[in-house]
C-alpha cells in the first residue's frame, strides 16, 4: 500500500508511534523515526531495519517550531521527498480539575499536543506542496470529541487537533494533500500504564469500552496506515475514532 513512499512518524519511540512506523515499513514505506527519546527511537528504527525495512532516526522536540522544520529538512536530505506524515507525539500532562490545574502543565501540554502538530504540519505541508501532494494523519483522541474530567489541557489540545485538521484539509485538498485525525480510545501504551496499575481505575477504563478491553497500538496503526495510502483517496478532513465503542455510549 505504501511501496516507495517516504513516511515520517513523530513520537515513534514506543506505543502507537512505534507500531505505526513498523506498519508503514511492512507496507513498503521508507520511514523517518522521530522522538525526544534517542535510545528508544533508535531502537524503533533498528526494529524497522530488522524486518527488512529502511529507516533512520532523528531526535526532535515537536514543541520547537525550528526543530520540526529541521526534521522535515533531514527527511528530504536523506530520502528526497515526504509523502506521509503521522503527527503522533504527545504527553498526558498533569491530572487535576480545571480550577486547580497547574498553569505550567497547561502550557506544556498545549505546546506538545497542539502546537507540536501545528509546527509539524507547517513544515510537512510545504514539503508536500513541492512534490504534488501527500497524506497527513494527526493523532487526536476520544477526548478530542468529549470532555476529559481532570484532563482539561489534554482534552482542549485534542479538540484543537481536530479543528486544525479540518481547517488544513480544506486549505490544501485541491493541492493533493489529504489531512485526517485519528481518535484512539484508551490503548495499552506507556501513557496509560500508570492508570492500568490501579485495579479500580483499570476496571473503570475497561468498562468504558464496549468491547470490554483496552486497545492495542497495532490496531490503531492499521487505521493510520489505511489513511496514509491511496486506498483512502477520498478521505480528508475527517475524524476517525478507533475506540472500542468508547464514544458509542
Question: Mind explaining what this structure looks like?
Answer:
It is a single chain. By secondary structure, this protein is of the alpha/beta class. The chain has one domain (6-248): NAD(P)-binding Rossmann-like Domain (Rossmann fold), CATH 3.40.50.720. It is 47% helix and 15% strand. It has 8 helices and 7 strands; from the N terminus they run βαβαβαβαβαβαααβ. The chain has helices at residues 15-26, 38-50, 65-79, 103-129, 152-172, 190-196, 199-207, 217-228; strands at residues 6-9, 30-35, 54-59, 84-87, 134-139, 177-184, 239-242. The chain has a 7-stranded parallel sheet with strand order 3-2-1-4-5-6-7, sandwiched between helices. Helix 2 links the parallel strand 2 and strand 3 (54-59). The longest helix is centred in the middle third of the chain and has 27 residues, at 103-129.
How would you briefly describe this protein structure?
This protein has 249 residues and is α/β, with parallel strands linked by helices. Helix content is 47%, strand content 15%. The chain has helices at 15-26, 38-50, 65-79, 103-129, 152-172, 190-196, 199-207, 217-228; strands spanning 6-9, 30-35, 54-59, 84-87, 134-139, 177-184, 239-242.
The count of helical stretches stands at 8
Strand order of the largest sheet: 3-2-1-4-5-6-7
Query: What's the gyration radius in Å?
Result: 17 Å
User: CATH class, anyone?
Assistant: Alpha Beta
Global morphology: globular
Give the DSSP E fraction (strand runs of 2 or more residues): 15-25%
> What is the number of E strands?
7
Low-confidence stretches: none
Biggest pleated sheet: 7 strands, parallel
| Class based on secondary structure composition and strand pairing | alpha/beta
CATH architecture: 3-Layer(aba) Sandwich
Q: Write the element-wise H/E pattern from the N-terminal end onward.
A: EHEHEHEHEHEHHHE
CATH fold category name? Rossmann fold
Question: What's the CATH superfamily, by name?
Answer: NAD(P)-binding Rossmann-like Domain
Helix content range of the residues, please? 40-55%
> Mean pLDDT, as a whole number?
97
Give the CA-CA distance, first to last residue. Answer: 34 Å
Please, how many domains?
1
Amino acid at each position: 500500500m505504501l511501496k516507495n513512499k517516504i513516511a515520517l512518524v513523530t513520537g515513534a519511540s514506543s506505543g502507537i508511534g512505534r507500531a505505526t512506523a513498523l506498519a508503514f515499513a511492512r507496507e513498503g514505506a521508507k520511514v523517518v523515526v522521530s522522538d525526544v527519546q534517542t535510545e528508544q527511537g533508535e531502537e524503533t528504527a533498528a526494529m524497522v531495519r530488522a524486518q527488512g525495512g529502511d529507516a533512520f532516526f532523528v531526535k526532535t522536540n515537536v514543541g520547537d517550531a525550528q526543530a520540526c522544520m529541521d526534521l522535515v529538512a533531514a527527511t528530504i536530505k536523506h530520502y528526497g521527498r515526504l509523502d506521509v506524515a503521522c503527527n503522533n507525539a504527545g504527553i498526558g500532562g498533569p491530572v487535576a480539575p480545571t480550577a486547580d490545574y497547574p498553569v505550567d502543565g497547561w502550557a506544556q501540554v498545549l505546546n506538545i499536543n497542539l502546537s507540536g502538530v501545528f509546527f509539524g504540519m507547517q513544515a510537512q505541508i510545504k514539503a508536500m506542496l513541492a512534490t504534488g501532494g501527500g497524506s497527513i494523519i494527526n493523532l487526536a483522541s476520544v477526548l478530542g470529541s468529549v470532555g476529559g474530567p481532570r484532563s482539561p489541557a489534554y482534552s482542549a489540545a485534542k479538540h484543537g487537533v481536530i479543528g486544525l485538521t479540518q481547517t488544513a484539509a480544506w486549505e490544501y485538498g485541491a493541492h493533493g494533500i489529504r489531512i485526517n485525525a485519528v481518535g484512539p480510545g484508551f490503548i495499552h501504551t506507556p501513557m496509560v500504564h500508570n492508570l492500568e496499575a490501579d485495579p479500580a481505575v483499570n476496571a473503570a477504563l475497561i468498562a468504558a469500552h464496549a468491547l470490554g478491553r483496552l486497545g492495542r497500538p497495532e490496531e490503531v496503526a492499521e487505521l493510520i496506515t489505511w489513511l496514509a495510502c491511496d486506498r483512502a483517496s477520498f478521505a480528508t478532513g475527517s475524524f476517525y475514532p478507533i475506540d472500542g465503542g468508547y464514544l458509542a455510549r
